[in-house]
Amino acid sequence: MTTLLESSPDVLPIVPVSIERISVHDFRHTEFDDTDTFYYELLNGELVAKSAPSPFHQRISRNNVRALDYFVINNDLGEVLYAPIDVFLDEYNATQPDVLFLSREKQHLVTPDGVQGAPDLVVEIISPSSMKRDRGDKMKLYERCGVGEYWLVDARTRSVEVYVNGLVNGVQDFELRDVFMETASESAAPVLVRSAVLNDFTMPLMAVFAGAE
Question: What does pTM read for this prediction?
């Protein structure tokens, strides 16, 4: 079993390496040591150990949850959830999205064990250690499994990329819909992040990163 560690880029962990691939069934029945401070994702049959997020990461996550939750509740659209929560996507993949939205039509996916299927919207907050995975394996996985919309929130560039899923020749495919970034002009209107899945939802870009300086 291969175990990957997602943490500070300055940490060089020694991890066991094996060619064994584990399933979601095995993952759900794995007992971790009580002293283990990590939480885990399963990506393509490999365990990824994630350390606690930074305060800046948590503030960005909180900002998104508050704005999305307020909009979703007031419009009776479904439910907003946030990490840590297992999202089981197929036999070998169970992720822990930072923030996710499930429409009323997908409420049946919520079970006592986690979310059993693809959310309508997934938000991942990029860190230096997660950037390659968020833009690579996880993005491909969310695309293939039918996540409707995918946000990549990058505190380093203070930007939000919005990808929307559609069918291209019968295959699920993410299209980059918008990249929201602050402009250099002081006279420009505030940048508003917009969602394709949540019609009429907007959030000031500055509010996304409030407190994350």
Answer: 0.87
